[in-house]
Structure formats: C-alpha cells, structure tokens
Amino acid sequence: MQLETYNSPYTGIWKAEPNGNNRNLLFQFQPNQNIVNGIAADEEYLYITVQEVDSITYQPKKLMYQIDIQTGEAAELFSFNANDWLFGAYEDNLIILSYDSAEKEFAYYRYCVTNGETEEFFRYSATDDEKAPVTALNGNILYLVQPIGNTKAEVSCINLKNNQKLVLCSEIPFFSSETTTILDFVDNKMILQVSDTRQQDSKLAKHYQYGIDLKTGEVKENLLLIENGGQAEFINICGAYKNEYCVLSGYDPQTVTLFDDNGTAYESSIYFPVYAFITKEDYWNGSEKWIAPIDLTKGG
Q: Which domain of life is it from (predicted)?
C-alpha cells in the first residue's frame, strides 16, 4: 500500500502491488483534510488520524478514521483531544497516548473498535523528560525501559490482554530517555540501543547495543562494529532464519563514472553495502565469521 501526498485532487491513499504496479485510489482526502500523527493497520482495516479544518471557524480537529483495505469505505470512529496521539494497534484495539495537563502525566489507553470502550492501562510523570520511560508496542505487549537510578534501567512489559506486568531484567545502562531507543524486535529479542552523551565533547560519547530475550530476560551485548564514513556503527540484524542472521557486514568502495550538470564525466567512489549471513551464536559472541557474503553489486 502506498500513501500519496500530492495536491488535490490526487491527495489520498493508493493501493498497489509490492512492485508498484496496478495502483488504485483507495481513499481520497477532502481539501480541508490531511494525515497527522501515526498510522496503524490490521488485516482488514487501516486506521489513520486525520486533521480536518472547519471551513467557517478555521479551527482544526483530529479524527480517527477506519478505512476498509479492500473497498476503501471509511468510517469516523471518534474525535481526538488536542493532546492525544495514535500509538499503535493490536487485534481490535487501538492504543492511544494522551497527555493529562492537569496531572502533568502521560497516559496510555486502549480503544476497542468493536464496542467503542476505552480503558487506561499505564501512565507516568511528564515532569522530567530525561527520566521518562522508553516504550514500544510489539503485538499485544507494551515494553518499557524505565530508569531505576542515575545510570540504570529496568526492562519490563505489560500484557495488554490481562494488564499483567512482568519484569524482564534490570541493571541495563541508562543515561537519558532521549538517548535510549528500542530499535526493533527480532528473533524473540528486543534490540535496545543506549548512548552516554554526558560529556560535552561528542567524540567522547559511548554507545551500547543489547539483545534482550523476551521470554527469559537474558541480556546479550552486540559487540560487532563496522566503519562507515570514518565512524563506527553497530552491525544490525536485517533478518533471522533458523540458526542464522542476515546482517549488513560492511561497505565495498567502488569507482563509478558520474556526470555533472554540464554533462562532463568524472569518477567518484561509492560505498555499496555488503550483506552476509552469520550464525546467531557467532553474532552474539562478537565473532566475525561470515557465511556466504551477499554481493548486491553483481547480478544473478
């Protein structure tokens, strides 16, 4: 599915095959509408936050739309408050993040699409951005990285089907919510990146990356690094298959011929990404034992 943002009359959501062929307009916005905040989807519907400007008062309002992926039929589910955002979705529930200005807290709600009921399941203080929890939704589980000291954090999760909270691990390095990121969920692990930027000199910043097992809470540190533009970066997991990962293992500099605005040819170096397979054991042990590197610069 492809989202177009060109000017009216073509502004809308377009449905297409993965290769871009057979594009069809699924939903068209009105001139006073545009998408804001997040987008969520399940197998049947697309959920979007639409900002609509009143043609008389010129006041904006946020609306939640449910769009049938097959027919494009749209239904308005509810109106957002100014401080509400679509955070995610699971099954027939939408997760809404809301700012409570009276209590100076952020709260998470679930909205059931089937019956229209809402229920709060988590909130935290908004008075200290650096100590706020880092959150991410994976299926029906909300994962939290919450500081428990000056340089440590606890990783926990809330099962949204029964509101039960489980602590996965503690003593994870933590320096600020602004420098802590849940990158992905891969191979039943949360990939967490933490940076220590307390030094004024950015060259002295330290970066850490961990894989946290979602069942056992076991923590593995990613020690594999590659150089990119003179800077070290983590070798991230692109995909998992049986006992192996596919990773970006490095960059291959190659000389290519380019042309400037006057049509004059010149040579330049381009760094092509190189992908490879590695066993899961070697990856988490920090061993660069690549299996069958994949050269994307060659056909076949």
A: Bacteria
Query: Where along the chain do its domains lie?
Result: 1-118, 128-221, 224-300
* Contact status, residue 26 vs residue 72, Cβ threshold 8 Å: yes
Contact predicate 7/33, CB 8 Å: no
**Ranges of the chain with pLDDT below 70:** 1-10, 295-300
How far is the CA of 287 from the CAs of 278, 281, 290, in angstroms?
A: 9, 9, 9
Q: Which helix H or strand E contains 172, and what residues bound it?
A: strand 164-173
**Token digits of residue 158:** 């809330």
- Mean pLDDT estimate for the chain: 88
Q: What is the pLDDT of residues 1-51, one digit of tens each?
A: 555 544 455 578 888 887 778 888 899 888 888 888 778 888 788 999 998
Count of C-beta atoms within a 10 Å radius of residue 247: 21
Predicted pLDDT of residue 119 = 94
Distance of CA 218 to the CA centre of its chain: 23
Distance (Å, rounded) from C-alpha 95 to C-alpha 137?
Answer: 9
Assigned token pair, 282: 């070697």
